[in-house]
Design brief:
- This is Diadenosine tetraphosphate (Ap4A) hydrolase.
- Keywords: Hydrolase.
- The chain starts with a helix and ends in a 5-residue tail after the last strand.
- A six-stranded antiparallel sheet has the order 4-5-3-2-1-6.
- It has four helices and six strands.
- The chain is an alpha+beta fold and 149 residues long.
- It has a single domain, classed as HIT family, subunit A.
Length: 149
């Protein structure tokens, strides 16, 4: 574990809006707590990183690998017609990559999901189902965090 990872702390807005599912070798895997969309976020565990180019070349490649694996898993698992993948950071400057499985007829289709509708939090049972589904489908090196609540 390097110094930047030791100093990593998840932005409080992400911590408040998301459920921590686990860790890829580089990134923390989060589930946005909005049951209207399958919406996951990858946050590289590198203190101070706000842009992809702030990462080393090795970390940039690792992030792309993790993002691709997550997107493919989500597309298969949630029957996505389109995967929306975005790095915005206007509200939360910490580097994070949104992965949203979109389908015609979802509450915001075809527009963006941000601010379209009030969030609908997941139930504990639904979180457990999603965690189990994603855990069984991800093939890379992912350490899942057991929810102790």
């Amino acid at each position: 574990m390097d110094e930047l990872e030791l100093e990593f702390e998840l932005d409080t807005r992400l911590a408040n809006d998301c459920i921590v599912l686990g860790d890829f070798p580089l990134s923390r895997l989060l589930l946005m707590n909005d049951a209207q969309y399958p919406w996951f976020i990858l946050v590289p565990r590198r203190a101070g990183a706000t842009e992809i180019y702030h990462l080393s070349c090795e970390d940039q490649h690792q992030l792309m690998d993790e993002s691709s694996e997550l997107a493919e898993t989500m597309a298969d698992s949630f029957s996505a017609q389109k995967m929306n993948i975005a790095n915005l950071g206007n509200m939360v400057p910490q580097l994070h990559i949104h992965h949203i499985a979109r389908r015609e007829g979802d509450p915001a289709w075809p527009g963006p999901v941000w601010g379209k509708h009030p969030t609908i939090p997941y139930t504990k049972e639904k979180i457990d189902q999603i965690r189990s589904r994603i855990e069984s489908m991800l093939t890379g090196e992912v350490s899942f965090i057991v929810d102790k609540k």
